Amino acid sequence: MTTVRIPADWPATEAEARAVQDELRGRVILDEPGPPPGTGCVTGVDVAYDDERGVVAAAAVVLDAATLAVVAEATAVGAVSFLYVPGLLAFREIPTVLAALEALHRAPGVVVCDGYGLAHPRRFGLASHLGVLTGLPTIGVAKNPFTFAHAEPDTPRGSTAPLFAGADEVGRALRTQAGVKPVFVSVGHRVSLDNACAHTLALAPKYRIPESTRRADALCRVALRETVARPGPPTP
DNA sequence: GCGACAG
DNA sequence: ATCTTGTCGC
User: What is the CATH topology of the domain spanning A23-228?
Assistant: First the structure.
């Protein structure tokens, strides 16, 4: 597991962070369909926190898209780099997530983030940000609708309803299990919304949350516990 | 102005 | 995100 330092130029204030989003937003690529679902690899990323100690742990888990078998995984830990502010989540997670992705010794394929991409107050959520920084195809799959409006998708698995920010369609509510609360899918970088939903559905054959996110969630919790329970904290 | 608000 | 017991079900 690698340890990361907060970048020297990391935003310190909310205004600086918003300015970074406004600057990077223009680099998002929205006109590529992305890799076909069910082929190649898909990578889930997630983080866990110990706010008392200011420690964050990230995990990246690579799955074979066809079988959902785990083919690679990596973790990273570091100091919390930003406080949680709705709309600025990426600044809390990205340094450690980047380190985990870099520790992977294979191509991640599509990266599935636990949060939003285009569905964001400034249309630049975690998945968009991670995509621009890495150049990788990314999508966002969130568990809550945030501030966005949506109709209830039909009961069958695979049903969708558009997610609206005012009149803009910024994503979809996707029912991954019949009769169970939907997840909220939005485009990150270099993947179409149709493909993002297809990937998400393929990753959730049995549970509401995509297998990629479930695996990454479990792994980053282990990584957090191991570093917190060990002498010699990673905080310089 | 007040509250809500991805993780 | 995180704090938390028991409980229902495969």
Answer: archaeoglobus fulgidus dsm 4304 fold (3.30.2170)
Give the rounded percent of residues in chain A with a pLDDT score beyond 90: 91
Using a 7 Å CB cutoff, list residues 136-155 of A near strand B: 140, 142-147
- Name residue, tokens 């570093």: A227
Closest Cα to residue A68, out of A165, A207, A180, A188? Answer: A207
Sequence ranges of the domains in chain A: 23-228
User: Beta A168-174 vs A160-165: how paired, if at all?
Assistant: antiparallel
pLDDT of res. A84: 94
Distance between CA A77 and CA A48 in Å, rounded? 10
Report whether A185 contacts A171 (CB < 8 A): yes
pLDDT at A69 over 70: yes
C-alpha A171/C-alpha A185 separation (Å) is 6
Which residues of chain A between 53 and 112 are close to nucleic strand C, CB under 7 A? none
Q: What is the DSSP string of A45-110?
A: EEEEEETTTTEEEEEEEEEETTT--EEEEEEEEEE--S---TT-THHHHHHHHHHHHHH-SS---E
Sign of torsion over alpha carbons A17, A19, A24, A28: positive
Amino acid at A86: P
Paired with A44 in beta bridges are A61, A112
CA–C1' nearest nucleotide, residue A49: C1
Is A114 one of the annotated binding-site residues?
A: yes
